[in-house]
Protein 1
Amino acid sequence: MKVLLETHIAKATVGAIAKAAPDIEAQHLARWRDGPMRSASDAELLTACHEEGRVLVTFDLRTIPSLLRQWAAEGRNHSGVIFGDDKTLKPSSPAMLAAALATLVAEIGEADTTNVIRFLTRPDQA
């Protein structure tokens, strides 16, 4: 699975994912496509992810959910979104995020992630 980590997630999480789950190809928004997408709108970001078949990993529970509802109503596809909640996991905890993501990706397996929305759980709660 290819994932894109949004800017609120620690950049070190990319390396932690490479160690915990080498089958996940992770990019961080700060470095993805040489960085210009950092200022992109949510819609532009989801569109770009969809172009690459990349699942967005985000802690944005404020704006992304309403955009996903809008897209669903319009019949517009995305490549999947995985939400984190800072009450459950801290975006500044690379090892814990990597473990949670590895568990979720193993659970999803080879399934198509088009329009899939999932939530990370603490690795000890999985």
Protein 2
Amino acid sequence: MATRGWLIGLLTTALLAGVAGCGGTGGDAGRDGPVTIYVSAPLSGERAAEGRAIIAGAKAALAEAGGLAGEVKVSAVYLDDTGGGERWDPVATAENAREAVQDSSAIGFIGDLDSGATRISLPITNQADMVQISPGASAVDLTRRVSAELEPSRYRPSDDQTFARLVPAADVQQRAERELAGQVSAPIRPARSITECRSGQGTSYVISPAFLPPAGGNGFSGVAFPTWTAYGQAAMTLLLNSIEAAGTRRDAVVDEVLASGERDSVLGSFSFTEEGDTTLNRFAVLRLDGCKLTFEREVSAPER
């Protein structure tokens, strides 16, 4: 583990040096357009289904907008952060981020799904003043200080905040789990249990943020299956709306994404904290009987 950490740190440092020498960190991403949005997600291996769902959502949002953000023409590039392996790969992840920042038309970066991958890509996009929106990276240290070794400054070589996430942070989910623990007698299992169930297991509960609220409703009633498609759709829509409002300068789009105020989305109404955390704090409580998954209730994480 120590060797892997050293390798990742060395790789990121080298890539940042390469980005710094590529001719600037901000400014125009195509002047009046067209602009490009990059999406990085796992497209093979153990999380491929989730990665493909995120990309499907992003594609749907872009198609619904007619490939436009206001009058600005927008295209997208979809990249695999696994390098064809079973899980995210540090080299592939860094290459994806570097490809984005070296594209003069690039305006924003959606990714990564995993927190470890986001720790690799974020310093690269941050150095280039490019907004990065993660649909699934929940590690607390991406936005808030955990310890001297785990704090957001490690991922902000520009000293500016350029990151936002749509999924609730891990500590928010932990508070929701503690809230649920007082309401049920069966054990609470990790959210990954949704895709790793085994026959013969007893009843347990899983908390998952990856649920669509019903159309026109305020809760999760009637939702039968989790989806990451909504997170890809919400991320792309957020970027398109921000480009329409702010124009095609990367730094202006960063400011617009992180601006205060409620936004409506397929995930529900939310805003971002100044650290870049979503204010969404509702989770679906799923009853898992062997491999049968059913929605049971909704739980909200108490305030800190």
Protein 3
Amino acid sequence: MLMTLALSVAASAQITESTLFTFGETTNFWPNGTLLEDSKGNLYGTSRGGGAYGVGTVFELSPPAVTGGKWTMTYIYSFVPYGTGGWVPISDLVQDKAGAFYGTTYNGGNPTCNCGVVYKLVPPAVAGGAWTESQLYAFPYDDIHGRLPANAALALTSNGTLYGTTIQGGAWNSGVIYELQTKNGKTYTETDLYSFGDEADGNTPNGPIALDSAGNLYGVTLWGGAYNLGTVYKYTPATSTTAAVETILHSFGTSSTDGANPTGNLVFDAGGDIYGVTNNGGNPDSQGTVFTLEYANKTYTESVIFTFSRPAYTGTNPVAGLSWNPTNHSLYGTTSQYGAQNTGDGTVYQLLPPATKTGTWTEVTIYSFTYDVIGGYPTGIVTRDPTTGTLYGTNQNGGIEGCDLYCGTAWEIVNP
């Protein structure tokens, strides 16, 4: 199935959207988030349902051998319910240099808690063999540690250290930043680095952690801050001479036009400015924003560079964050609802930077989804092929008309 959409602005090539795979009730369903592309053009992701045991998979989508052919779906791993393993994968995948994947599940682990696990999938030694899954950490239920990992990718360093967040647990039951360290890649030691929720602090972290070259950690919280509408935070780890410090870079809700409830990832430009999205806030409809935190003189100043609006047909309520187009320094993202003529079920959009620092960003709605057949409710970060510029992603719901479980689709957009 191929559908074509022409931009409302001049373009050198025609934009086309196509469905790579439609998930089904008898296979795997509810693809969750961002697709990870390897050097051969294979795409990897997770589904929250389906597989051999009905509780989720890690899958691979391989491109066709000839142009116009079908993509091939392979189930790398089916999660197993109950026992001590995890099930219902909720995070995007990250991959190390050896080809192993890391992620989190929302259920499983400690049988008295089912508070989720951090897992590792090691590729087979021989092509076509079975992948090996191991549990790196099971979140406990107590008054100290974090539990229920956030719906976000882990951060992976070159030495194998993993960083992540939970939405509950910790000293104030508002989530934590945690670290998993390893010396051999097999056994891991978990440390809760920071507990959210004290006074005007952020709470309920709601996106992946970003790492800068100095080892500082950045992210967003859905709630908390000065106005209890979410924050952007920075965490500076302890050193041999200094204590760890968490700093709120921005509390949302500072004005009637500010965003609220930030979600998804943060991206940085070469000058250190930060970009992200909020699920709510902005005028006139409180349906989400794209914001920037400009860095100057060791401080950050927040401004809204775009506000989503249902009357303007731009799509509304982004759930995922942003990705860069390094060629023209534009931003790509998705909205989870509405679109063209208010009948769509989410959009893919591009924000083009202004010609001058103080200019206005320009939004282009690249594609509007419709629920049946094409799918709807995209929740992942857009994956951009660095060579071709093709965009890839998933829709959490929709697809086959009449699918009782609203199974979802994987898609590509050519010549955006």
Protein 4
Amino acid sequence: MADDRLSFARRCEDLAEAYLRRLGYRILVRNFHTRHGEIDIIARDGADLVFVEVKGKRGLGFGFPQEMVTRSKMDRLIKTALVYLDDAPRGGRSCRFDVVAVTAVGDSSPGIEHLKAAFGLGGG
């Protein structure tokens, strides 16, 4: 069961990456880990540095995938992003946090919803 969840999560991240590439994002890093947590995708959107959280669900029985990005999850993402920023100079560029929600229902093509600037360094 855990392997199935991991496989589904990886597939959602792959779909999100392909989606972002189609929008012109330049992917810099996938699965950036620190002791605080993980950022699924770090990318450039023009001059912006974008930290992307990917959330996937197999249905909408208990809400939308993006609703799983809780306040504590935002705090962990922010702490992880700050570690990345300490090691990678931004050159005065702005940064933001996006959420890409992937919903797979049955055999249909997965739906993707992109929440640009879903939250900032201050959280929610």
